[in-house]
Amino acid sequence: MSVILPYNREEEGAHPPFLSPDYKATIKRSPREALIRIPQTLTELTGPAGRWDRLMGPAVADLTKIGKGEAIGQRIVVSGRVLDEDGRPVPNTIVEVWQANAAGRYIHKKDQWNAPLDPNFTGSGRIITDDQGRYRFYTISPGAYPWGNHYNAWRPAHIHFSLLGPAFATRLVTQMYFPGDPLIPLDPIANAVPAHALPRMISRFDIETTQEAFALSYIFDIVLRGRDATPMED
Amino acid sequence: MSGQTPWQTVGPYFHYALPWKGGADLVEGKGDAGARMDLLPDGHYTLNPNDQPRRPAKGQVVTITGTVYDGDGVPIPDSFVELWQANAAGRYDSPDDTREEVALDPDFIGFGRASTDADGVFTIRTVKPGRVPGPGNALQAPHIAISVMARGVIKRMVSRIYFADDPSNAEDPILDLVPPHRRATLLAVPVGEGAYRFDIRLQGEGETVFFDV
Lengths: 234, 213
Fold this sequence. Notes:
The structure holds two protein chains of two kinds.
Chain A: E1 36-37, H1 42-45, E2 75-84, E3 94-99, E4 124-128, E5 134-140, E6 145-146, E7 154-155, E8 158-163, E9 172-177, E10 204-205, E11 216-219, E12 222-224
Parallel strand pairs in A: 2-11, 2-12
Antiparallel strand pairs in A: 2-5, 3-4, 3-8, 6-7, 8-9, 10-11
Chain B: E1 61-69, E2 79-84, E3 111-115, E4 121-127, E5 143-150, E6 157-163, E7 187-192, E8 195-197, E9 200-201, E10 211-212
Parallel strand pairs in B: 1-8, 1-9, 6-7
Antiparallel strand pairs in B: 1-4, 2-3, 2-5, 5-6, 7-8
């Protein structure tokens, strides 16, 4: 066997703890035992690649045009790069996204909040990064919505992102927030992340890539685990 | 160096974005397996239509059924189990598994997603994976790597499914790192011909072993 470089472990102090009690649902859904650390074997160092059509299905990069008519709301374009911790692009990897509509309602039967559904907006898509790790999709600006976590709890506007990266070890699911949102400092899910790392989840508005008379642009770069510099004998 | 983007929960509404029809049937992608079509209004499914018949993967077909439980022993209906495994010959369908001497199966990818239903139950249909190399010269016992995600699970919980009736478990280098009294939580128990049971307990008595990878 050749020598395979393992991936870095979860960055210390950058991720939320399983038990984040202000987000109440974690109280009964977090382990009490310590994780058992295992070496990264071939299992953790591999992952599916290039078979996205056969798995999740073909790419959907314009969420505003899934229905018969155009989705209602503020049209935006979200783009960025998927990188590893050393700044190297992660090419040809799938980025799966989902979100609420402009009124803050998900097209999901369990979401019964009294806000209008948009028959022309589903709110899910997927994009494959190019050889420079770039992705881009069109959507509408998601609304904030109330949830039952505590009195007057409102989730800040966000887009869910799911990434596989090159290996089982590089898996990431996160949420992208919008700059200047006053709900972010009040949100137990965002603030389960240590304060210094929370800004990594906030996109930035960019006038340069905003499309004249068409769509506001937000940029969100995503950093997956990089390779550990210490080689592992496999 | 730049810092890792932090993990966040998938929340309760991932069903129209992540688990595709047939995603829990790694053998031939049959039907709606893995998806929750009951939660999506008509016309709002944008994932794999799964309308083409597929040749079945090679190997011994197994079904694994289980319930995901919270710390009170209550089944979790808004969760899913993500799967990654080698094919029946023990080869990963990944550019980073470069062992040309072990055959790929063009009909097997080895990646899947299985949502839990309203009763917290998931069902996986797959082929039993072959053995793959582990640390040093050790071979690993057949196993499926899993990530459990749910509302209230703020970052994935990583575990493995082994097969309780496989004698090679005794020499598996990863199981060897698990205290003996907790190993049973990683073993799918045979319940019939090619059928196994594997429950996942996120917390408390009989808590499933979760790994730091």
